[in-house]
Specification:
This protein is α/β, with parallel strands linked by helices and 263 residues long. It is built from 9 helices and 10 strands. The structure holds phosphoenolpyruvate and manganese (II) ion.
Length: 263
C-alpha cells in the first residue's frame, strides 16, 4: 500500500488548513518537551509569529535514561490543546503506548511515532485504526525498506494519512548526534507516494547545524520540516543543545521559504 507502483499519485495529508505533500513546505516547530502551560502557549505564539504552521511538543518522552524528565503526560496534552486554542496551530505529539490512543486522540491533531518505536507493531496497528494523521519517524538504525514496512502497518490498518519523517540514522560519526540521511528523501519519493518531512534537529543534534540541514532538506524535495525551538534553549528540559532560539527559527523560516520558491 505504501508503494508508488500501487498508488502512483502523491498522497496529500490534510492537517487543519494545511496540506503536507503539496508544493509548499509545512513547518512543524516547538519545544522537544511540553514543560508547563505558560511555556507551551508562549512557544505556540512565537512559532506562529515566526511563520510555523504546526506546533510540536512531547508530553510522553522516550528518554535514554529512566531518571531523565519523562514528560508531563496527560497534563502536557491538556496544555497542548490550550496552545492550539490560543493560536489555532494544530498539534503534533508523540504516542508511546497503544493503550493511550483514545485519550491521545481527544487532544491532538497528528500522532507522532518516535524513532525508538518505529517497529513497535502493536503501536503501529493501533494508530492504523485511528482517523488522525501519523508522523512516522525513521528508526535509529532502520533501513528505508524497514521504514516503509512500518508505514505499511499503519496503511494496512486502514489509516491512509501517513507522513514519513527522516530524523537521522546511526553511523560511525560522533560530531553529530545522528547522520541526517537526505538520500532518503528522493529514494522514498521514488518508492512511495507518501509525503516525507525532515527533522534536522534530531538529525544533527546541535543547533548550529540545524539551519543548513533544514535548507538542504527542502532543497532535496522534502514536503516540510519538524524543528525544535525553545524560548531559552539552555534551560530546556530536553534537547536544549539542538533547540533553536526564536530568532534563529525565524531566520530558518525565511531561508527555507526562499529555497522553496526557487525550486
Ligand atoms: C522528538 O521528536 O523529540 C523525538 C524524541 O524524536 P525521535 O523519536 O526522532 O528521537
Ligand atoms: Mn527531542
Amino acid at each position: 500500500l505504501a508503494s508508488r507502483a500501487f498508488h502512483p499519485q502523491d498522497t496529500l495529508v490534510q492537517v487543519g488548513e494545511h496540506v503536507i505533500g503539496g508544493g509548499t513546505p509545512v513547518i512543524i516547530a516547538g519545544p522537544c518537551s511540553v514543560e508547563s502551560q505558560e511555556q507551551i502557549i508562549e512557544a505556540a505564539h512565537l512559532v506562529k509569529q515566526a511563520g510555523g504552521q504546526l506546533l510540536r511538543g512531547g508530553a510522553f518522552k522516550p528518554r535514554t535514561s529512566p531518571y531523565s524528565f519523562q514528560g508531563l503526560g496527560e497534563e502536557g496534552l491538556k496544555y497542548l490543546a490550550l496552545a492550539r486554542e490560543a493560536t489555532g496551530l494544530p498539534v503534533v505529539t508523540e504516542i508511546m503506548d497503544a493503550e493511550l490512543l483514545p485519550m491521545m486522540e481527544s487532544y491532538v491533531d497528528v500522532l507522532q511515532i518516535g524513532a525508538r518505536n518505529m517497529q513497535n507493531y502493536t503501536l503501529l496497528k493501533a494508530v492504523g485504526r485511528s482517523d488522525k494523521p501519523v508522523l512516522l519517524k525513521r528508526g535509529l538504525s532502520a533501513t528505508i525498506e524497514e521504514w516503509l514496512m512500518a508505514a505499511e502497518y499503519v496503511l494496512a490498518g486502514g489509516n491512509p494519512n501517513v507522513i514519513l519523517c527522516e530524523r537521522g540514522i546511526r553511523t560511525f560519526e560522533t560530531y553529530t548526534r545522528n547522520t541526517l540521511d537526505l538520500n532518503a528523501v528522493p529514494v522514498v519519493q521514488y518508492l512511495s507516494h507518501l509525503p516525507v518531512v525532515v527533522d534536522p534537529s534530531h538529525g544533527v543534534g546541535n543547533w548550529r547545524y540545524v539551519n543548513a540541514m533544514a535548507r538542504a532538506g527542502i532543497a532535496a524535495g522534502a514536503s516540510g520540516l519538524i524543528v525544535e525551538v525553545h524560548q531559552n534553549p539552555q534551560e530546556a528540559m530536553s534537547d536544549g543543545d539542538q533547540s533553536l532560539t526564536v530568532e534563529n527559527f525565524s531566520q530558518l523560516v525565511q531561508d527555507v521559504r526562499r529555497i522553496s520558491t526557487a525550486l
